[in-house]
Known about the structure:
Strand content of chain A: 15-25%
Number of helices of chain B: 25
Low-confidence stretches of chain A: 459-477
Number of domains of chain A: 4
Low-confidence stretches of chain B: 1-11
Oligomer: heterodimer
Distance between the termini of chain B: 76 Å
Structural class of chain A: alpha+beta
Number of domains of chain B: 4
Amino acid sequence: MSFDEVITQLQGLLGAQHVLHRPEDLMLYEYDASVDKGTPGAVVFPSTTEEVAALVRLAHRAEVSVVPRGAGTGLSGGSISRDRGIVIVFTRMNRILEVDVANRRAVVQPGVVNLDLSAAVARYGLYFAPDPSSQKACTIGGNVAENSGGPHTLAQGVTVNHVTGIEVVLGTGEIARFGGKCIDTCGYDVTGYFTGSEGTLGIVTEITVKLVRKAEAVATLLAIYNTVDEGANSVVEITAEGITPTALEMLDGLTLRTVEEATHAGYPMDSGAVLLVELEGLREEVEEQAALVRGVCMRNGAREVRRAKDETERALLWKGRKNAFAAIGRLAPSYYTQDGVVPRSKIPQTLRYIAEVSKKYGLTIANIFHAGDGNMHPAILFDLRDPDQLKRTVAAGADILAYCVSLGGSITGEHGVGMEKNALMPLLFNETDLDVMHRLHDAFNPGVLNPQKVFPTPRSCRETGSASLPPELRRRP
Amino acid sequence: MSTTPDMDVATTASQFTTKDRPTWDLYSRCIHCGLCLNQCPTYRVLGREADSPRGRIYQVLLVDEGRLKLADEVVTHIDRCLGCLACQTACPSGVQYGKILERARTEIETNYQRSWLTEKLRRYFYGSVLHRFDKLASVAKLVRFYQRSGMQTLARSSGLLKLMGTQELDALSPRIDDDFFFREIGNVYPAVGERRGRVAFLAGCVASVAFAELNRATIRVLTRNGVEVLVSQGQTCCGALHAHGGYLEKARELARKNIDAMMADGIDAIVTNAAGCGAMMKEYGELLEHDAEYQLKARRFAAQVRDVNEYLAEIGLRAPKKKIAGRVTYQDPCHLAHGQGVRSAPRELLKAAGLELVEMERADDCCGSAGTYNVTQNELSMKILDAKMENVAAVEPEIVATANVGCMLQLRAGLERKKMKARVMHVIEVLDEVY
């Protein structure tokens, strides 16, 4: 089947207005929020599960790949087509199908925006817990694909802890349903297995999620330090003390100054690091823990520990953190962020290592991260117009991730592997491990769904000449 | 694997030619994180990347790089932008989207051929009507004749408008005033009681023929709060419609004229009751940054500009003579909230007047009015309006307050479409009732 025929058939399935195929339209889907690029052959906007199934079957017959896309806010190229396949966009499947307050569940289509769901259930005192920084734009379908986390992952867990049921279209075009509203331990945990599979096993077309009750009391503290080390040591001690914050976030001096300029969140411009600590629960419990946290921070050299007086102040402190990642865009024409994970007790030494890498390659690196999870987010600043800087950036990134793995950590905590880090998978998995995952993959997807993602491909190894990052490390074409 | 279509739409060089072209420094700030998408009214309705802020910036970049031609497709997506600037509020990287848009539109007006009729109409309005108050008065008189002579009634009842597809447009057009504001330009209105301030007031172009009474109310509220008001002689249109439409040079010409006319010794502020005009005048400094003669004056002028809500909240209201009761919801005008960051002042004023303020969801989402947008992009504008009215209806207000005349017209049309009973009022009209 020629690609023109594929287009004609897609138009027949969905209606011509829901199929984009002209080059000027396709270029708008060659990027997401990552550094990767790839122009698709067609972009389609289905409105029902049946349409999704039909177009996957068509793609299967025509041997064209299919890549699902939510809002394109992903950081590892998960929604980018590497081989001019069909990109499925879910902006027409964006309805909240049911809110079940008694059972604290919502049934949603994949295109529902994360924060829109929380807004819709706020009147019942409920919210959807996974809170990636992109939550005002990213979709729940995308959250499921990437198993997204956020600052509150520490206490609430990642997306997989909040998905109780899914409807999926498999690579064969079959429609399958797993789980539901109840706790379901019967058979294999396929729902859990699909969550975080980055669109390589199936395309999620309906999701049942948990809704969480808002806590009675919240305390948000900002600890201010002169050095990064003091902040890092506080993180280790807070968790060692048995305190369970709902969020524990750290920003280094460079980051917090940038964020402050962008959002006026109230971070002191002259400090070396800040720690944002949030506690939730019953009033008495929160008060007691807040006092403990304050004590730990002061003991570790905090200059001051502030507490948000009201919801407005709290929102402002969080606005700074949520916008930090993108605010770094003010510092340099380009930057490259990874999200390697280390055991949290090893955060201080990892930060010192990152500082060494920064010196070694002559590149500025800003640090902002989910300290409670040991989920680092070093942002390497560079100018893509300078090829040498680009080369050094790639090398610096790979060094940092290799170091994380050497400490018993991982190459990604929440951004996904996608096409950005698939070549690094052998750092974590041996041949047998990867082979097991391959066999699981093949059981659901004969190859049409999101190919050349997650697994290391011979192609990307050849291209880079080593187990390193893809060479097309660019923010723009 | 089957083959994909030929991707060769690339031209060889940048399509931009003017001195106001969008530059790399402007759009390289965009790291395409996508945080703007869900805040963009057109993306929310259409769901297409090309109709999102990120997608529009990318198209500008593609045209500049020569990968995309400055042709119908790009122009359509740029035309569809409301210019509401909600994306600027959402953007953590500080991308100056408004600037990129204005510059892209300047390129379009220079290098792209629109249809003959559109071209003529645009040239006529931007080139010789809005800022020439004599011509504006003549055009307004013609429209008034249509509205008053029975022609409008006839056109409406006969189904002629429906037939011509202009029914929506007719409902959106403002009722032309019996008494234009132009005659009052040049007047000075003394403060009532102790003088607490002295301001220059921008009468506005469309406001002078369709909202003259609002201008008078603004002067009454200011003077009754102890402010002397100068309606400076020689002032003209602020140039916002020109700048947003791609006529930056014309906007500069008007800015210079207003600077000459309105900057007087001893004034505390330059005040406007229109959010779009305020946002424009606050940008005069940037607009004239390469004008050696006006550069400094423009910056000083811009620093003095205040929206009337902002100004009144700053000086503090006198105790009102009476209070009005009722349930009010406030629609943020885009160019006040996103353009100028003024959000709390109008809300404070409404509460000071005695009203119960109930916040609707997404109060700072555009209503779809956007200057001439509801005329040029009527269908899309109505979809955006309908989404807005859902949120308005949910809080069951008796008054829908806002602070910009364009939004007022649009919201009135929205209430009519939804068959809702509520009054649409400018914050100033509310205050006018209590002083």
